[in-house]
C-alpha cells in the first residue's frame, strides 16, 4: 500500500498551526505560572542593584545583598519560582545533566523538590494523583454539559456554533492552567523523577543540609 502524500501547502499549514499552538501554550504557561511576576521583580531588583553600585561601590554589604537578590530572582525567572538555597544547586545540576527544562520548571513550580527537616526530598504524592484524576473527570463532564446546553438552547445555528467555540476556548485555557499544577506536574515526576533521585543522592553533603532521595508525601 502506497503511503499517503500531502501537498506542500497542506504541510506548511500544518507546521504553522503547530508553531502557533506551541506559542499559545507557552504564553498561557507564562501567565498562569506567574513567571511575569518574577520578571517584574527582577527588573526592579536590577535597578536597585545599579543604584547601589553607583552609590556604594561593588564591595559594600548593600551591593552584595542586592546582587544575591538578583541571583535568586534570576533563578525564579528561569525555573518559575524561588527555591531555598539548599534546593537551587540540585535544580541547576538537573539542568546541567540534561533533564528537560519543562520538567524541572514544573517540579520547582509545584515545590515537589523541597527541603524537609534538613533533608532534600522529591515529593511523590498519591493524594495529588487521585485528586488530579477526579478533578479532570469533573471538569470534562461539566465541559460536555455546557456543550449540550449550547446545542439544545433556542437560537440560530451560527449563534450556537459561536457559543461552542467560546466554551471550547474558555475551558481549554482553564485546562491548560490547571494542568500546570496537576497532570503535567505529575507527568514530569514520572519522566524525570528517577534521574532527580540520582542527582539528589550524588549531591555533596553540607554542614546544614543532609541530601537524600527520600520520598515525601
The quaternary organization reads as: single chain
Beta-strand segment tally: 3
- Low-confidence stretches are 205-217
Instruction: Name the helicity range.
Output: over 70%
Structural class: mainly alpha
What is the residue-mean pLDDT, rounded to a whole number?
85
Strand order of the largest sheet: 1-2-3
Q: Determine Rg (CA atoms, Å).
A: 23 Å
Number of helices: 8
Please report the distance between the alpha carbons of the first and last residues: 53 Å
Q: Shape from CA axes? A: extended
Order of secondary-structure elements: HHHHHEEHHHE
Proportion of beta-strand residues:
5-15%
Summarize the structure.
This protein is mainly α. The chain is built from eight helices and three strands.
Task: Please give a handful of descriptors for the protein shown.
single chain; 217 residues; mainly alpha; three-stranded mixed β-sheet; 8 helices; 7% strand; extended
Please give the structural blueprint:
Blueprint lengths: L7 H26 L1 H22 L4 H19 L8 H9 L4 H9 L3 E4 L2 E5 L2 H27 L4 H24 L2 H20 L7 E7 L1
Parallel strand pairs: 2-3
Antiparallel strand pairs: 1-2
Helix pairs in contact: 1-7, 2-3, 5-8, 6-7
Amino acid at each position: 500500500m502506497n503511503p499517503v502524500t500531502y501537498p506542500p501547502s497542506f504541510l506548511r499549514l500544518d507546521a504553522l498551526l503547530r508553531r502557533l499552538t506551541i506559542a499559545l501554550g507557552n504564553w498561557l504557561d507564562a501567565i498562569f505560572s506567574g513567571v511575569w511576576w518574577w520578571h517584574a521583580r527582577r527588573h526592579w531588583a536590577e535597578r536597585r542593584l545599579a543604584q547601589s553600585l553607583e552609590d556604594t561601590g561593588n564591595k559594600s554589604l548593600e551591593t552584595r545583598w542586592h546582587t544575591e537578590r538578583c541571583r535568586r530572582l534570576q533563578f525564579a525567572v528561569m525555573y518559575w519560582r524561588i527555591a531555598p538555597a539548599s534546593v537551587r544547586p540540585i535544580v541547576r545540576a538537573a539542568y546541567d545533566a540534561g533533564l528537560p527544562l519543562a520538567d524541572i520548571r514544573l517540579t520547582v513550580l509545584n515545590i515537589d523538590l523541597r527541603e524537609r527537616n534538613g533533608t532534600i526530598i522529591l515529593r511523590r504524592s498519591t493524594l495529588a494523583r487521585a485528586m488530579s484524576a477526579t478533578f479532570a473527570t469533573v471538569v470534562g463532564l461539566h465541559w460536555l454539559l455546557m456543550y449540550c446546553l449550547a446545542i439544545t438552547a433556542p437560537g440560530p445555528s451560527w449563534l450556537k456554533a459561536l457559543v461552542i467555540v467560546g466554551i471550547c476556548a474558555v475551558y481549554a485555557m482553564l485546562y491548560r492552567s490547571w494542568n500546570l499544577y496537576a497532570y503535567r506536574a505529575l507527568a514530569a515526576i514520572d519522566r524525570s523523577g528517577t534521574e532527580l533521585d540520582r542527582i539528589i543522592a550524588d549531591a555533596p553533603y553540607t554542614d546544614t543540609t543532609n541530601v537524600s532521595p527520600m520520598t515525601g508525601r
